[in-house]
């Protein structure tokens, strides 16, 4: 009888561990990938705006030199 109790306790602990192990890893990974994608898009937009501002500034300087 005592060995049956030990077996039941071991089975219960093993089952609960396995049930928790498959929890939310996929959801967490999906959320992480989504956040990475959004941040990369925002970074690319910022870099593009920065480059366009630099081009516009250099054109303005070139126009000032020819007019001045």
From TrEMBL:
Span of the signal peptide: 1-21
Keywords: Signal
NCBIfam families linked to this entry: reg_PtrA_PA2808
Entry protein name: Secreted protein
Species the sequence originates in: Pseudomonas migulae
């Amino acid at each position: 009888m005592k060995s049956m109790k030990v077996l039941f306790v071991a089975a219960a602990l093993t089952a609960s561990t396995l049930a928790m192990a498959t929890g939310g890893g996929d959801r967490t990974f999906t959320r992480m990938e989504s956040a990475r994608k959004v941040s990369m898009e925002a970074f690319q937009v910022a870099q593009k705006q920065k480059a366009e501002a630099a081009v516009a500034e250099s054109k303005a300087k070139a126009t000032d030199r020819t007019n001045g």
